């Protein structure tokens, strides 16, 4: 077959669907509909659909499936799968032209073929040769008469074949079944909504062998309306586990433990409870895993729950200089498909302007190092080989698991078109609230396990961050980060012991600091007294850092002075989270700062002597970490097998 053609098959070539062509749910706004199909501006009549797999295109109208959920991520299938081609299968009623296209890694569109189709079942086989670095496949529809398309899907031309394990042995083909695990903590409404979403699509429901739900809170899904109906639907496939609050790692570890010990599920899919689900993503991740050339962790992408046409990120890695999360090469953040659909790749003139943005990068394959557990699928063979998650409560457990999997020959791949909607990180305060303890402690633990560079890159990064917390009057954050460093220095033997007790201990420490106390509103305090001359707007661009130098100098002078107690009665400024930057807060003695969710404010008050003491303790503990890091690395690495064993976790679960 030519590399520039889409051949219509004479017989049934499609063996198994890989991804169905989907229509939006009823009632979705236009920006979300653009994740599924694009309507030509010249259309006099709009396409219509009564279900998610059938669409009628009026005579003379055109639609394109060059969209997030319906374009085929050919570069990923070429790189990671057993397939050399893919088949589009579609049932047609009417008369239309199907036009097939592919893109290059820079988004340039290449026409493949045009086929006039009449009523009947049609299949078209397309090669996957031209996608080494990136590229998508898709098709457009131009209707000659009113034309209905049903049950369109990207399909495999053959059944899955055995896979090759890291040691070179063969791993047999696994059934098309998955255990879906959803840990929940005091989100009963969200948990029931997740169960409803999983049972809403019979096609997806058919591949779900088990639904596993650890309930770690005191507000139970079982008390929520709709729970009984959802559980009745799944019947013996549904299993709930009541346990104490062991955090995300405890919830997910329970899912993996139960799936391995008490089911025969060949695949285990993690999903958060506070999400909106595109059900077909479950099926897509499962098929990716089954048709993989070798087993790997299949990560789902995150769409923004508050801006639902926005893709949060296409992939991440760990920066080895400071051992901190960061973008993978060629990755994209916060891409809005409603503003920049996949075809919005600019032109030669716009490419010369660094201020111009387009969608070219979305066509490039991104190779990642880990995937968040908002949606992540594990072949059973990986879980059986490398063990359970670390007992980290929350943060870095997902990163560590992928790093451990990679060390055992199992990479992680973040897969386009398989996604959930989740609250974006920017809409949370987790870098400064109680979670800051886990951010830092667990970062150090995972670094001890996998970092091979100079530890001073890590400690320098931590100290720089601590100085920013000082300038922003985030003393509670600094205080619990001191606890994080102490607990890291205490070694791995106590990790299981403090799994349930760390959060209450940290919460108690935070009560001693005003910046951790959330008031209902700034209106509950006296009106702000003002701070003339204090900058409140960020300076960006090429000269941004230079322009901030005088601000830094003035901030340093202010921080050396004793604070004015008068400003601790009435705030000088009321700030939004976006305005609460170091160059503003370091020039005042008090300010209210709204929470990221807009539910209240923290009244921050500068305390020079407290800040000095916190910085001094930070510097001392970082010095201790530098001095003992090699020994700590040896301790944590030696303890890893026990920390991740099912027997160790069994003791934890049996004690619940």
Automatic annotation (TrEMBL):
Keyword Protein transport found: no
Domain Galactofuranosyltransferase GlfT2 N-terminal: 18-157
Coiled-coil boundaries: none
Superkingdom of the organism of origin: Bacteria
Protein name in UniProt: Glycosyltransferase family 2 protein
Keywords in alphabetical order: Glycosyltransferase, Transferase
SUPFAM superfamilies on file: Nucleotide-diphospho-sugar transferases
Family: Belongs to the glycosyltransferase 2 family.
Any GO MF annotation of the entry: glycosyltransferase activity
Domain Galactofuranosyltransferase-2 C-terminal: 459-654
